[in-house]
Structure to design on (768 residues):
């Protein structure tokens, strides 16, 4: 198919910041895009060739949108999978596949998939209702502490909580969930795997993540991870095995724990460009966004190695501020060596909301990490 | 001023490929943009916050557009300067300044400016009409060969011709022009200077240009130029002197000749992002487009050094093809090491029309140059 002509149409479900960064690359290749999103203020409202308002969980909205495109991809997992399944039957190329999304959307199903495919992950128990967890604890069937995870629609750390005492269960959603062993880990790592329909596969370097303790959101992403080559290979092999098990097409971001005894356990995966790959825009030969486009269009995959060391800092809304966003001291961080802010264009800030990210690149990764700390201490996302 | 809020509006005169690449960066910083262009098919029609149709040479169109923005910049020189002058008087920040554009728009004025400011350039004579050149030749006042240049509106090699015999003057525009000594040169070089209103200045590495013999368009841009440090310093100092003489704000691309005896002579300048800086998107710490935005908004300038070696190849319409464009073998070049195509999105191709460019980056500049040759030999811009 000639993608580089306006006869071809690429559909993207979701018009948020990931979609926005995908569009830089569809624009660069002059690939025609249609975007579906429920919000009139979606970052993708401009820069897409066509923007359509619609509920991503609504069958008709997704089906009717999908019928108008040749290839359909996502920038968020929470979409109507039944519609995708029917679109696949009718010949629309849907990447990632509906089958994969169905598995990933439900954390219990996702964990069972790892078990079924002999992929390493932390031990867990599945519960249909939160109340069953309380029973299990009281009758000794489940030991504290553990990690509670909602089965459905967790995002950006919502739907995950460390439970150390019964009271921690209060105010949690009542529905399907899992209780996962609390694994003491040294490090959180991630590997992004790109795979095309023809099976061509490339992996980005292993990255290391530092999380914000309260928000449970990534605070720093460090590329490459400061780990041994042996461990890096182990993490990369696990990521490749996951991508292969899903027969995945497009990007698959695999988040992993490095345990105290250097075992690798899969935490969760995202079948799309991912926060742990934002630094690839400035640090890598091929950004994760360009790579996703290359993969789903079955174009040759680009180099995944780095030109320079990269560190990514998320810009999240400061605590205590809700309303029209102001980026305080952004000029100061732009004055720092190798610093590029990415502002997503969301009008309203609230505590811990992802409003943008900042990439710091440097020949010397340690120096990049040092500057990242300065960035973090300087810029504040507040409201007017 | 808080640029990172929708109260601020940046205006761009011209909605072509340079504007399109500027918009990647205004989007990245979430800076609100308005674009004025005469074509309904302009690449900037999407990705700008507001797109307005209008003639860039029409006083009212430019003036009324300019009144709606806080800062006004250009992506093409041929705009109505009287309107810009009035907008400046009324407090709109216009970068580059109308005074600078007036000088640059007219090649005779531009050459005189260099002379007045003791900036090195090839000797020349100014003529009000082409007929005066014929007289000068016949009565021995002007020696063949020389370079004829139209004073007004030369672009992409149009309006420039080497005159070796009287007959070469046939079919040339009749109006104001200059006759410039034909300087035998080793090399064509260019330096992009970024300067902000506060006078902060940075220069990109000297690049080396290889021209297409017939089309007189850049065929390869090689960054950094393969010249001595001494010569690089000389070229950089000349470029800085030009920027300073204009008290320029924004990017100034200075094209220069390296003569047989290693003198540097200014050929011409462009007061905007320039073809000789496209490789900065992939090769530099800060792309020329981001740098232009930083400069005109008086934000801190970014690093101008390179992460890796870069070579840029223009994608121009193949001879003998006019009509709906097809990029033949684009998949092949995307399979080459470190190759990124940029497709501008023009629907129609014609011989030598700039349809896009390809950047090749590599740790080894020689390898990048070798791959660039393969790219050039592989991809063909033809019509259906």
């Amino acid at each position: 198919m000639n993608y580089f002509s306006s006869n071809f149409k690429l559909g993207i479900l979701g018009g948020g910041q990931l979609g926005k960064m995908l569009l830089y690359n569809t624009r660069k290749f002059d690939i025609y895009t249609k975007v579906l999103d429920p919000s009139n203020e979606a970052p993708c409202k401009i820069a897409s060739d066509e923007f359509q308002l619609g509920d991503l969980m609504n069958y008709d909205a997704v089906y009717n949108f999908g019928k108008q495109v040749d290839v359909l991809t996502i920038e968020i997992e929470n979409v109507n999978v039944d519609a995708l399944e029917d679109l696949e039957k009718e010949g629309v190329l849907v990447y990632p596949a509906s089958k994969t999304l169905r598995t990933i959307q439900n954390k219990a199903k996702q964990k069972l998939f790892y078990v079924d495919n002999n992929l390493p992950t932390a031990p867990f128990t599945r519960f249909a209702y939160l109340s069953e967890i309380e029973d299990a604890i009281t009758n000794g069937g489940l030991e504290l502490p553990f990690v509670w995870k909602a089965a459905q629609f967790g995002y950006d750390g919502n739907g995950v909580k460390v439970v150390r005492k019964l009271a921690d269960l209060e105010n949690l959603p009542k529905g399907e969930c899992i209780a996962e062993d609390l694994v003491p880990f040294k490090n959180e790592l991630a590997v992004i795997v790109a795979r095309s329909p023809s099976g061509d596969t490339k992996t980005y370097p292993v990255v290391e993540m530092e999380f914000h303790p309260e928000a449970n959101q990534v605070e720093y992403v460090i590329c490459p991870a400061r780990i041994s080559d042996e461990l890096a290979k182990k993490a990369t092999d696990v990521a490749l095995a996951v991508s292969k098990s899903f027969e995945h097409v497009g990007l698959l971001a695999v988040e992993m724990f490095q345990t105290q005894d250097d075992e690798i356990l899969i935490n969760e995966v995202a079948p799309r460009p991912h926060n742990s790959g934002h630094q690839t825009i400035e640090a890598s030969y091929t950004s994760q966004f360009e790579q996703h486009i290359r993969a789903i269009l079955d174009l040759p995959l680009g180099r995944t190695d780095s030109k320079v060391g990269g560190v990514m800092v998320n810009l999240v809304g400061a605590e205590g501020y809700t309303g029209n966003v102001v980026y305080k001291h952004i000029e100061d961080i732009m004055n720092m060596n190798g610093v590029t802010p990415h502002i997503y264009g969301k009008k309203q800030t609230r505590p811990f909301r992802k409003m943008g990210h900042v990439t710091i690149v440097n020949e010397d990764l340690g120096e990049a990490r040092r500057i990242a700390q300065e960035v973090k201490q300087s810029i504040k996302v507040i409201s007017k």
User: Anything to note?
Assistant: Chain B touches chain A through 42 residues (CB under 8 Å). DSSP finds eleven helices and 21 strands in chain B.
